[in-house]
Design a protein that fits this description.
Mean pLDDT of chain A: 89
CATH topology of chain B: ABC transporter involved in vitamin B12 uptake, BtuC
Protein name (chain A): Branched-chain amino acid ABC transporter permease
Number of strands of chain B: 2
Structural class of chain A: mainly alpha
GO molecular function (chain A): branched-chain amino acid transmembrane transporter activity
Strand content of chain A: under 5%
Shape of chain B: globular
Largest interface: A-B, 47 and 46 residues
Structural class of chain B: mainly alpha
Oligomer: heterodimer
Membrane topology (chain A): Multi-pass membrane protein
Largest sheet of chain B: 2 strands, antiparallel
Distance between the termini of chain A: 25 Å
Shape of chain A: globular
GO cellular component, one term (chain A): plasma membrane
Number of helices of chain B: 11
Number of strands of chain A: 2
Low-confidence stretches of chain B: none
Radius of gyration of chain B: 20 Å
InterPro entries (chain A): ABC_transp_permease (IPR001851), LivM-like (IPR043428)
Helix content of chain B: over 70%
Number of helices of chain A: 13
Largest sheet of chain A: 2 strands, antiparallel
Distance between the termini of chain B: 44 Å
């Protein structure tokens, strides 16, 4: 059995080494696959702040993933068609600059998370799961019927957006950008977990009454966690849209929300690198089982079942042999 | 807009609602009594539809097809409960979500492997096909009218079963205090299997009945599953009455919203814009309904207060 801290370092190292190896051995597809895994991991790390730290089982995180995706899609669409996004009261043009897109994605996700969080936190438990699902579905159907931005067909962007000083068209460069963001967010996650806010949030998850007694509002703590969580998942959405150079209502679908949640459960809830291990494992299973058989979903299903039934605490729990209490 | 159209749409909404009720009834029992989130309930609906299509293709009998649908779904439900779900009652909701998601994958791909990717068709039997004339001169498909009646009959029978029979009393008691009911000598695990089989059979019946209107295909269960969740959350988890009222509300909102919202928007918008924004809002309407209900009453219309 190895220590969880060592496992975390190993995972991040491997996640970086494999695409680097692929770069020198001219295997661009492996790089794309790794980038996909990193972006999914980012979305899952985002959700894990709400789910692992705050105990908020959000079944609607695809909302933020999709908002991030559409922020990128809409801005880039206006830039490539040379039409302004808005003329009155002031002019807003489209853009192909990643930092601007990220900022927009994060700000809009924050607004959405604040609104959804305020309303959803009135409920708890299973009802919270379902109301977040309902918000996800609202956005999904809205994006389907929003004909101005492609409706059901989605939006294509012909050239990947730019980052100052980096040629993002080279796969390895884009991978590095995503990887650096993931590392920063993981760092942020550790800082949050150790901060007074993180500790209070953990307490609010476990014994809300006590937190209230010392004069803190558990719901406000949870709301802040929900917003941070939404912002990170929104950023992941913008990157995901950039990876595919395409955005469609699928990013808002409940299956997407479910997948982000599955990355976490697969890896291990409330673990720092649980979501990363989960996302990487999922992408790898998808890839290797997909090559094995046309009906690979059956194998995937059986594997997931085995993990749920026999590896409580996810893969990290299985490897480190220690369970973290999650409620 | 004519009264005839309105009545027709109300009937369509009712028909959609009672079919949702068949799905939601099992889900709400399993959810309320055992505290289990079963995402694979939609798969049982799909299994029912496929079993019905297969048997109808072999024998030509619609009644046999319905029986086969309920039997196949119930058997699948019991198998799944005894092999997998039973181990999940004591775990938290996250493990249940992952495990039942895995079951969806297995059931969907298994069905695709058995029946292929192409949709099957289940025909409405001759004696139920064609329109009937209702009082007031409304022409309405007989089959949809039959669906409404079947759904309401099942709802009534289920209500009687839960409130009047011994097993029903045990189910309600198990919902409140499972240790106490076990101490009184009721075999809880047998009771759970029974509830699961009942819920599965209802989902299978719904799949077969709806399969004759739409096509029978892999993945048909998931959209209905989400709607059934919406229904039980609106109604209040564990309440059969809540499931029925929630189902009718969702059915009517969805059907009527699609017709009336564009019309409503035309009063103050250009027709084409009204059409698109009206139908956009209509497709979101039931989720907005659910959101409003939960914000107003955080545990649904007939749920226990927290």
């Amino acid at each position: 059995m190895i220590r969880e801290r060592h496992l975390n370092a190993l995972v991040l190292l491997l996640l970086f080494a494999v695409p680097l190896w692929a770069f020198f051995n001219d295997a661009p597809f492996t790089i794309t696959l790794a980038t996909r895994a990193v972006i999914f991991a980012l979305a899952a790390v985002g959700l894990n702040i709400a789910l692992g730290l705050g105990g908020l089982v959000s079944f609607g995180h695809a909302v933020f993933f999709g908002i991030g995706g559409y922020s990128m899609g809409i801005l880039a669409h206006h830039a490539q068609t040379y039409t302004p996004l808005m003329e009155a009261p002031f002019l807003i043009e489209g853009t192909k600059s990643m930092p601007v897109i990220w900022l927009v994605a994060m700000v809009t996700s924050a607004f959405a998370a604040l609104l959804i969080g305020l309303l959803s936190l009135r409920t708890a438990g299973v009802y919270f799961i379902m109301i977040t699902l309902a918000f996800g579905q609202m956005f999904y159907f809205f994006s389907i019927s929003w004909a101005a931005y492609g409706g059901e067909d989605g939006l294509s962007v012909y050239v990947r957006n730019g980052f100052p000083g980096v040629n993002t068209l080279v796969p390895i460069n884009f991978f590095v950008i995503c990887f650096v963001i993931l590392c920063l967010v993981v760092l942020l996650n550790t800082l949050i977990a150790k901060s007074p806010f993180g500790l209070a949030l953990s307490a609010a998850r476990q014994v809300p009454q006590r937190v209230q007694t010392v004069g803190l509002d558990p719901n406000r703590l949870k709301l802040v966690a929900f917003v941070i969580s939404g912002v990170i998942t929104g950023l992941a959405g913008a990157l995901f849209a950039d990876l595919n150079r395409f955005v469609s209502p699928t990013m808002f679908s409940w299956q997407m929300s479910g997948e982000i949640m599955i990355f976490i459960i697969l890896g291990g809830v409330a673990r720092l690198c649980g979501p990363i291990i989960g996302a990487v494992t999922f992408v790898m299973l998808e890839h290797f089982l997909g090559g094995l058989s046309e009906y690979w979903h059956i194998y995937l299903g059986v594997l997931l079942l085995i993990i749920v039934l026999f590896a409580r605490g996810g893969l990290v729990g299985l490897i480190t042999g220690r369970e973290v209490a999650h409620d | 807009m004519s009264t005839l159209l309105i009545i027709e749409q109300v009937l369509n909404g009712l028909q959609f609602g009672v079919m949702l009720f068949l799905m939601a009834a099992g889900l709400t029992l399993i959810f309320g009594v055992m505290g289990l989130i079963n995402l694979a309930h939609g798969s049982l609906y799909m299994i029912g539809a496929f079993a019905a299509a297969a048997v109808a293709g072999l024998t030509g009998s619609f009644v046999l097809a319905l029986i086969a649908a309920m039997a196949a779904a119930a058997v699948a439900g019991v198998l799944v409960e005894m092999l997998i779900i039973r181990r999940l009652y004591a775990t938290d909701h996250l493990d249940q979500v992952l495990a039942t998601f895995a079951l969806i994958l297995i059931f969907s791909e298994g069905t695709r492997w058995l029946f292929g990717s192409f949709p099957l068709f289940l025909n409405i039997p001759d004696y139920f096909s064609g329109p009937v004339t209702l009082p007031g001169g409304i022409q309405y498909p007989l089959y949809r009218l039959v669906l409404i009646c079947v759904g309401l009959l099942v709802a009534g029978a289920l209500g009687l079963f839960i409130t009047r029979t011994r097993v029903g009393i045990q189910i309600r008691a198990g919902k409140n205090d499972r240790e106490m009911i076990a101490a009184l000598g009721v075999d809880i695990s047998k009771l759970y299997t029974l509830i699961f089989a009942l819920g599965a059979a209802l989902a299978g019946l719904a799949g077969a009945l709806v399969g004759a209107i739409q096509s029978v295909q892999v993945g048909m269960g998931e959209p209905v599953l989400i709607l059934a969740f919406v229904v039980i959350v609106i109604g209040g988890i564990g309440s059969i009455k809540g499931a029925l009222i929630g189902a009718l509300l969702v059915g009517l909102t969805d059907t009527l919203g699609g017709i009336f919202l564009p019309e409503l928007f035309k009063l103050f918008m250009a027709p084409s814009a009204a059409q698109s924004s009206g139908s956009a809002l209509a497709s979101m309407a039931i989720y907005i309904l659910m959101g409003v209900v939960l914000i107003w009453r955080p545990t649904g219309l007939f749920g226990a207060r927290i």
